[in-house]
Amino acid sequence: MTFKPACPKVKKCFSISSSRRYRNSFFGGGTVHPIEGVDGDLQRKLDREAGIDAVLFASHGVYGIASRIQFDENYRTFTIRKERESGRTTEWEKLQQSLKNASLMPSLTVQAYVDRNDNRLLGAAVTCTVDLVRWIERNPCETKTTGRGLHGQADFLIVPWDSFRTDPTVRFRELVGTTAN
């Protein structure tokens, strides 16, 4: 849920995913506050060191959210950056380190797919981050590399949403076929 002024379409998507209709469908209500791209030392550290892009304040708790938005096609997968060409720490490494050290990490992981032209939400899903990490540790995952034309090559772990449907250990919710207006 990027909120950087340089990315107006992504900013729009954040406001779409934060709307009451989607909060109620995904989280049972609450208020989402962006962290990523917001000025401030604390926000920068939560984003860069803990991988928290937003915070949900709900009646049943406070949750850090990791989010990833992709455009133009709903692949119905969670993707987690495993390796970077630059060698910088990846989301996967941050999650593993946080679990090892029992340190702060996102409680929830959201993946959304948005039409780049009209900001229509093509699909989205949310899962408990610990469930996602444990699932990856137990199951072989496909790895894909970003397209050659993109700046900053990276490898991503690919986890199909359908793989969670029969796994009772994974808390998961999918929101599809919705229109963002």
How would you write the strand order of the largest sheet?
1-2-3-5-6-9
Helices and strands, in N-to-C order? HHEHEEEHEEHEEE
Distance between the termini: 17 Å
Averaged pLDDT, please? 81
Query: Largest beta sheet, briefly?
Result: 6 strands, mixed
Q: What sort of overall outline do the alpha carbons produce when their principal axes are compared?
A: globular
Q: What number of structural domains do the residues give?
A: 1
Rounded to an integer in angstroms, the radius of gyration calculated over CA atoms is 15 Å
Helix content: 25-40%
The count of helical stretches stands at: 5
Beta fraction: 25-35%
**Which residues form runs of ≥5 with pLDDT under 50?**
1-18
Q: Structural class of the helices, strands and pairings?
A: alpha+beta
Total number of strands: 9
Can you put this structure into words, describing what you see?
The protein has 181 residues and is of the alpha+beta class. The chain has one domain (8-173). The chain is 27% helix and 33% strand. It has helices spanning 8-17, 20-27, 41-50, 91-101, 129-138; strands spanning 31-34, 54-58, 61-71, 77-84, 108-114, 121-128, 142-145, 154-160, 172-176. The strands form 2 sheets. Strands 1-2-3-5-6-9 form a 6-stranded mixed beta sheet. The protein has a 3-stranded antiparallel beta sheet with strand order 4-8-7. Strand 2 and strand 3 form a beta hairpin. The chain is globular. The chain starts with 7 loop residues before the first helix and ends in a 5-residue tail after the last strand. Mean pLDDT is 81; it is low at 1-18.
